[in-house]
């Protein structure tokens, strides 16, 4: 007899039920292994949006997110998940495709940025802010 925790409920499985459940769980784990390794190794999709936010490019990041997820991720997920009958793996593949496109686009934008001009712009904003504080109202 084995006690399994399934979605907040505890379920006691005996004999054949236990063997069937464990076999199905192992099959799912084997199928999602490559996807889990992809997510662990590809942390760029966490870094690139942070660079966009920190650089003051929130509007640009929003457009990239809309394009990546709504134009690439969701259609790929729907096609793989429902049209090609891949199921949950197809839906997850669509989200991975959207995250990959987002990472690539934001990385390209970050790579093509003139950081010297960004520094000059940041200094200009700082000095303008000091002048506004010094001006009597």
From TrEMBL:
PANTHER family: MULTIDRUG RESISTANCE PROTEIN
Transmembrane segments: 63-84, 90-115
The keyword Transmembrane appears for this protein: yes
Protein name, entry field: Protein DETOXIFICATION
Domain of life: Eukaryota
Entry annotated with the keyword Transmembrane helix: yes
Alphabetized UniProt keyword annotations: Membrane, Transmembrane, Transmembrane helix
């Amino acid at each position: 007899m084995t006690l399994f925790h399934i979605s907040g409920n505890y379920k006691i499985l005996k004999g054949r039920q236990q063997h069937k459940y464990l076999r199905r769980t192992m099959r799912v784990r084997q199928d999602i292994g490559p996807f889990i390794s992809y997510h662990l190794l590809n942390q760029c999709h966490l870094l690139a949006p942070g660079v966009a936010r920190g650089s003051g490019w929130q509007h640009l990041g929003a457009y990239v997110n809309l394009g990546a997820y709504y134009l690439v991720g969701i259609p790929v997920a729907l096609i793989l998940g429902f049209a090609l009958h891949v199921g949950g793996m197809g839906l997850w593949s669509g989200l991975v495709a959207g995250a990959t496109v987002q990472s690539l686009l934001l990385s390209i934008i970050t790579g093509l940025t003139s950081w010297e001009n960004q520094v000059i712009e940041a200094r200009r904003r700082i000095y303008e802010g000091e002048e506004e504080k010094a001006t009597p109202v």
